[in-house]
Design brief:
The protein is an all-alpha fold. The protein is built from 4 helices and no strands. α2 (48-59) crosses α4 and α3 (65-75) packs across α4 (94-106).
């Protein structure tokens, strides 16, 4: 902006010929974000021990924490931090995957 024009505008503002009005933006209310990531925020997620005990009592089979993590990953549920650095990891057998899926339903995770 030219210095002469700037000084003229400043003089007119000082002489109240031009009134500067602040721009006020209206706050638009936003709808709350509904998230569903594996489990509702109102429910506490079961521990791996609780899932293991349920499967032991219901299906009379043992499942490892690794199989629980694999089932959760395949079903898109929240996972704990992966601490393994192994390249080769055994895969969860189909019958145990079915039992885990039913356990997740039992605990309202699915």
């Amino acid at each position: 902006m030219n210095l002469d024009i700037h000084s003229k505008i400043c003089q007119e503002i000082e002489n109240n010929k031009i009134k500067a009005t602040p721009i006020v933006k209206e706050k638009v209310p936003r709808a709350p974000i509904k998230r569903k990531v594996g489990i509702s925020y109102n429910r506490k997620q079961p521990t791996y021990s609780q899932i293991k005990n349920y499967i032991k009592e219901t299906y009379n089979m043992n499942v490892s924490s690794l199989y629980i993590a694999q089932a959760k990953k395949e079903l898109g549920l929240d996972l704990q931090v992966d601490r393994s650095s192994a390249d080769k990891v055994p895969q969860c057998p189909k019958e145990k995957m079915i039992a885990l899926t039913e356990a997740f339903k039992h605990f309202n995770m699915l």
